[in-house]
Write a structure and sequence with these properties.
Length: 297
């Protein structure tokens, strides 16, 4: 479209104002920033670019507004390709991680990708790692460290482990001096159970009897009743502690630190559903306030 401008030179912004006198300056800026303005067929995003009288200025159509979950793979004048996750995604998690960390991440993911059928299976670290290796799970949240040549592991959360006892057990010295000390734990293969046994062994306590339960609620209830001691992330035990049901005992940093990892087979195909889930998990953690992020790390 020719512009009746007889000046030897003008800026693109000036020419746009002549072409579209009814458009406010803010809209002109949006057109430029959005890549809608072309000079001689080339997208120009700066309004101060000089243009000549014979230059052809065009306003293109608005860019297609894609929902944020869709990833643009390829675009040209005639073809548009997007990656839209769909199908079945089966992942695993520790019960503690599922209960405490994954609810907001899973909710956001399910809302963003309604065509994905998400299945979450809980288990111990040993069980989940075995299922990933057998390709029954695409990936799983497990307790670190994990060293396996067939697995990729990514640190997702960092936790502080604490000993949890009944309120009447005031000190660790009193706890470790009990001749009838019992361990209230999940079934074999639980990383926290193994860590608790190592902590006690380092203090000369071996062979303590175990009381095995299948859920965290059962473990916390039995500990509150004075049946024994358990080891859990502070954030898991904190609600019961705030409610006056249990006592929490801090450990030295070297014993307290633990990482939650997301593991998957190194040679396995990463489906679009899994890739989208990992993006959601990372962005969900990054979006936390600094105070909340410290609770996660």
């Amino acid at each position: 479209m020719e512009v009746p401008d007889r000046r030897p030179d003008a800026t693109l912004r000036h020419r746009l104002r002549v072409l579209y006198p009814e458009a406010p300056g803010r809209r002109l800026k949006q057109w430029l920033a959005g890549g809608r303005v072309r000079v001689n067929g080339v997208v120009v995003r700066r309004g101060d670019v000089p243009v000549g009288r014979d230059d052809r200025i065009e306003l293109g159509r608005p860019a297609v507004a894609f929902p944020s979950p869709l990833r643009l793979v390829y675009e040209d004048e005639h073809l548009l390709v997007v990656d839209k996750p769909a199908g079945l995604l089966t992942i695993g998690s520790l019960e503690t991680t599922a209960a405490l960390r994954l609810s907001p991440i899973l909710s956001a993911y399910v809302a963003a990708y309604p065509e994905v059928d998400l299945v979450l299976r809980t288990g111990t670290s040993a069980e989940l790692i075995a299922q990933v290796l057998e390709q029954r799970l695409e990936g799983a949240f497990v307790c670190g460290p994990v060293e396996h040549p067939e697995l990729d592991a990514e640190v997702v959360f960092r936790e502080e482990l604490v000993l949890v006892t009944a309120r009447g057990w005031r000190t660790l010295a009193a706890l470790f001096g009990r001749p009838d000390l019992k361990l209230v734990v999940l079934r074999a293969g639980c990383s926290y159970r193994q860590r608790l046994e190592s902590i006690l062994a380092a203090r000369g306590i071996v062979g303590a009897r175990r009381l095995e339960f299948g859920t965290l609620d059962a473990i916390l209830g039995c500990v509150a009743a004075g049946l024994g001691v358990t080891l859990l992330p502070r954030s898991v035990a904190a609600p019961a502690w705030r409610g006056g049901q249990v006592a929490i005992h801090a450990l030295p940093p070297a014993e307290a630190r633990v990482e939650t990892l997301f593991v998957r087979r190194r040679d396995a195909f990463v489906s679009s559903a899994l890739a989208a889930f990992l993006r959601s998990a990372r962005s969900g953690l990054a979006a936390l306030t600094p105070r909340a992020r410290r609770a996660y790390h």
